[in-house]
Amino acid sequence: MKLKSQINDVIKEAFIKAGIEHSPLSVTEATKPEFGDFQFNGAMALSKKLSKNPREIAQLILDNLDLTQMLTKAEIAGPGFINLWLNPLWIAAECKESLLDERLGVEVCANPLKVVVDYSGPNMAKQMHVGHLRSTIIGDTLANLLTFLGDEVIRQNHIGDWGTQFGMLIAYLEETGKDASVSLKDLEQFYKDAKACFDEDVLFSDKARAYVVKIQSGDKHCLQLWEKFIDISLGHCEEVYEKLDVQLTRDDVRAESFYNDDLPKVVEDLHNAGKLTQSEGAQCVFLEDDEIPVIVQKGDGGYLYATTDLAALRYRAQVLDAKRISYVVDARQAGHFKQVFKVAKEAGFVPEDVKLEHIAFGTMMDKGGKPFKTRDGGTVKLIDLLDEAVVKAKETINNKEDYSEEAIETLAKIIGIGAVKYADLSINRESNYIFNWDKMLSFEGNTSLYLQYAYARIQSIFRKHDSEVCGDIIIGDDVEHRLATMLLRFDDVLKRAAVDASPNQITTYLYELGTLFMRFYEQNPILKIGVDEKMKMSRLQLADLTAKTIKQGLEILGIKVVDKL
Predict the structure, then answer these.
(1) Do 175 and 75 belong to one domain?
(2) What pTM was estimated for this model as a whole?
(3) Lowest mean pLDDT: which of 53-62, 187-196, 471-480?
(4) 513: domain range?
């Protein structure tokens, strides 16, 4: 937390000079310009401990505060707050340093971790639908963010490839006598036809279950067909990932079958640890204060999702040596993960120092507040939604005659896909949200298009200037002061978003930055005739740092910028 930690260091020095034993400190951004840039309220927390009035403690801190370098002004307010103003010369120097730094002043974390991010999780033998959107883009953003901050990130795409549906599909393929490659072009329809047979024909369902046993027993013919289903399914997923511009590849796939051989060992180790209780023929783990047990093996010997998840947790903690394991899965699975995490820790599968977290998210809703569906009530295929986003984005492009057809296609993809991703990432991930084309493709408000336009506007300034930019950054007025201070907060925002796994903290910051830049641009002419040369150079540099910050922030979110819009 670079900027805040720097301010805290100054306050700590004041504590030491005042002879006060200090506890961990924290400053917050001031809510209004008249309250300064930041506010410290630790005096009130120390009041009882030191048996002094908060304002008396605040005055003691103030008397020992260095106001010659980073801070230029401080004053006591209310019951014991200390309002703090940053020194404009210090701000200017820090902004200049950030501009010259390819990381824009964002420091690599001092203690990087190995992190597993489990996300997307598409169903095999089906096309991805809108229900996979949130996991895919929230997970990819978290992986991008942690990588940028210096953690070693292992992306994992946990797919269900080991179950009854594959026996069903193979049985249907055998019965129809069709060539697999031809039949599976429309995998969705093939699955529906096979499922109908499975539900209506007892002999067919028995045959399907027999094929599952054959797959699990290593039958060569069945395994070849099974691999073909998986290959075609992943091909559909890769098409979606390419359109979404997310970083998942086949190398990131860790399917249920990957852990299959370890499932008997999971049950055995739970038994040896004294964790298992037999209940109605099933092997269960009963947790304290939880009426519902964790079933790890059914009476017929079959395993469940919990068994596979325990095997995956053990592999990630003990083999991959991850210190943070993040599951980006919808909020409805909260109970499941709470139980599985607890069993994994109690059984010693995962060391106590490993952070396990369920990155929960809400549901995408239609304008009526219901789960997003097609007009006939069916599931919306994700690839269809993304294609529609590109079509609608074309309608937002003005002056189409300025672009070639190829350029319009590229621009529409950047705008459309960016709009879908940003609309999702800009809300608290645990909230449900209303999917609204008009809102997400608006040039106004907290949208990707608003930020892409702000970035493009800055690029147009530099096309007009088209010569060397040099000199110092000068903080001339309040709006420049606020813009520069906002730019220095980038490090703090990213690191807080990483801790909380909350992309909306980044989008909120970028929107506030874009809004502040627009105000700066309107009030502080940059290329206007008569503007002092030193001030022009300073404002160009602030504009440049703003553009680079917007670009880097959107890049972490998996969204591209354009130079002209």
Answers:
(1) no
(2) 0.94
(3) 187-196
(4) 385-556
